Amino acid sequence: MSRVPQASTESTPREAAVANPRVAALLVALLSVLATFIWQAATVHFNYGGNWTGLFCTGDVRPVPPELAANTYIFKSSTGYDGQFYRYVAHDPWFQKGLWRYHDTARWRSWRILMPALAWLVAGGQSRYIDAAYIAVMLLFVGLGTYWLGRYAASHGWHSAWGLGFLLLPATFISIDRLTIDVALAALCAGFVWYSRRESTVGLYAVLVLAGLARETGLLLVAAGCLHELWNRRWRRAVLFATAALPVLVWFRIVAVQTARMGRSLGALSLGVSVPRWLFQYPLVGIIMALFRAEPYPVKPPLLQVVQAVDVLALCGFLFALVLAVWGLWRRRFDREQWVALCFVALALVLSIPGYWRHVYGYGRPLTPLVFVVGLRVFAGARWWVLVPILLMDLRMAVQMSPQILGILRGLI
After folding, report:
1. What is d(CA 132, CA 128) in angstroms, rounded to the nearest whole number?
2. Which of 178, 294, 301, 382 is the most exposed place for a label (fewest CB within 10 A)?
3. 406/328 Cα distance (integer angstroms)
4. What is the pLDDT of residues 257-306, one digit of tens each?
5. Model-level pTM?
6. Which residues pair with 360 in a beta bridge?
């Protein structure tokens, strides 16, 4: 993919550099959806025996809801991964079936309602269609993120095909692998920077309303939007963007009421707490401590040393992104992207305990907006090394997915 020469005309922000940028971005988005679906279909066929629920990564350590157990692909001797709980939310988003009993933390999982609720709506509430609808919603956000990033690239005079870079973001990569909800916030972050560039109040407001429903850290996008308006003394727009948090707060209140009712029979441990234990304990120090605490993976040398080495590389990549973000706060004008960087730098500093930083699948998802806005600087003329954090994190995720890749290759050969 090569950079397209910039146009010398006075059309809308440099989009004349790319012919039909909207159509080109749409085609690239369709390509990303198709590529994602082909990958998932391949790994499901060759690694999960054709059972698409394998993508939710459900373990056998926790009980599976009886109504879902028969058709669920189970990973033996495993706790599974977060996607299994969002699947349960999608099957019971309004707390009617009691599937919250099978969550690890019912409150936190239910907060992140956007993708599960959309899956429920697409399926018309029919349980037999919800798993497929959830995958379809995930693919929708892959397409949206690619489209918005392609439009953003084109507006800087780059080809819309650079929108495919959305697939390389940690949140996207991991959501494709394990059907987590983080791809939704990553896509909305791409929408945020695109509509910021267009100064579209309607587009920005819609993205901000959805961001907090996708994940509670999406409220940092709302904060960034409000801070930008306050910084520029546009008080009415600041108040307007602040109201984007209201649907999120209403939903949080509904969840609080429901989980309080559940707590009378389950106890608080199953519900989660308002402030998780991995916040504020060792600000910044936890990241550094994690660099010197190798994860004891159940594999033999020399593979163990290889995996531990790429763990360190991924974490070093993120630290580099942190440095670039902080450096940029002094070197670049304070646009909305800068406010996003500042908000997520603050989040990174308070994600404290070393255990949180052991694996890129942990810290890479909530902090994708930070590495994303740092990487975006390449479109504005920054050196290629702003992409190094994403590439190093991708390397670690590729190692994680190597058993699936090998399974597909063995099946094809």
Report:
1. 8
2. 301
3. 40
4. 888 877 654 444 344 445 555 555 666 677 877 888 878 888 888 899 99
5. 0.91
6. none
Residue found by looking up tokens 């989660």 in the block = 272
Whole-number Å distance between alpha carbons of 262 and 258? 6
CA triple 107-134-147, angle to 5 deg: 105
User: Are the CB atoms for 76 and 102 separated by under 8 Å?
Assistant: no
Q: Is 128 exposed, middle or buried (0-12, 13-18, 19+ CB in 10 A)?
A: exposed
SS3 61: coil
State how far Cα 328 lies from the chain centre: 23
Per DSSP (E only), the strands in 3-109 are: 58-59, 74-75
Residues 313, 186: Cα–Cα separation, whole Å: 22
Locate 260 and state its tokens. Answer: 């309080």
Name the residue ranges covered by the structural domains of the chain. 1-274, 275-413
> Per-residue confidence at 193, pLDDT binned at 50, 70, 90?
very high
CA distance 97 to 130: 14
**Could you read off the pLDDT of 328-345 as tens digits, one per residue?**
988 778 899 999 999 999
Class of residue 312 by CB neighbours under 10 A (exposed 0-12, middle 13-18, buried 19+): middle
Nearest to residue 116, comparing CAs of 45, 215, 195?
215
Burial grade of 60 (CB within 10 A; 0-12, 13-18, 19 or more)? middle
